[in-house]
Specification:
Layout: H1 2-25, H2 34-39, H3 46-60, H4 66-78, H5 93-128, H6 130-145, H7 148-162, H8 182-220, H9 222-229, H10 234-258, H11 265-270, H12 276-285, H13 289-317, H14 319-325
Helix pairs in contact: 1-13, 5-6, 5-8, 5-10, 5-13, 6-8, 7-8, 8-10, 10-13, 12-13, 13-14
Length: about 325
Amino acid sequence: MRRFLSRKLITYLIAFVIGVTVDWGIPRLIPGDPVQAYLSQFSLQPAGYDALYKTMSEAFGTNGSAWDQYMHYWQSILTWNMGVSIGNFPARVTTLVGQALPYTLALLIPAIVLSYILGNRLGAAAARRKGLDNSVLPLGYVFQAMPYPWLALIIPYLLAVVWHVFPLSGGYSNSLLPTWSWTFIGSLLTHWFLPFLTVFLVSLGGWAIGMRNLVIYELENDSSRYLRALGARERVIRRYAYRNASLPQLSGLALQLGVVVGGNIVTEIAFQYPGLGKLLYTAIGNKDYFLLQGIFIFIIIGVLIANFIIDLVFISIDPRTRLSMQGAPA
């Protein structure tokens, strides 16, 4: 176990270094100068513009060499000081990310987890029942193939514009201030439901189709046939088939939960939901290096942590993984 964890930690450390390097480099591939883009919003005299440009470039560290900027980035990560946002000056990056992160987590974690549980149950049931399969499979393909933008237009049009059941956009009512009151919490929930429903429906189809196909494969493989030849009950065979089919689905869940901190850009923009996806979109438009880097570093850490947790879960539920750790053939 200790050897396995040591190898995993080294692997994740290498992945973290590579991810941080890519995170540092990608924003700098965006054409244009972020300081220049920020100052272009104001009407400045040439002399004042030059002085202010020089001061801000030095403050943000964009005037140094690529190596100096890269080392400065590592220093900011180790001290957890991501700097100041260029597009939202003088707000700090950690403050902006901290404000948007709860909205994204509250939106995506319930949508992904609930769609995972319900989708797997529906897919497993469809694999055993022909009548249910004839309805679940087509609906699963429909939901999976639905583009987020299309669904994000249809759902609010019906439930917000036509029937006036839920608000159209935003994180809460503009007439309210964020407080721990039932009025504000109720406003949060009503604004949360439509983006949640959009993500839930699209994710549901993928989980259902994946589990249905995996269970059918497990029910028809040699191990299931061997159990039938031994006279095992069909319920026992289905239970083992479901457990084996759940393993690839767990890997997919780890990836989805890992990138959850990056938000869902399309859904959050469509509903003007104040999560990390919308913040990321704004940062790209503003060429905000530091805000982009801060969001990406959260995504990198989230993916690595989620995959490490799933690795530990695999050890506890998959005997083949435990055998491979002991050096025995799986």
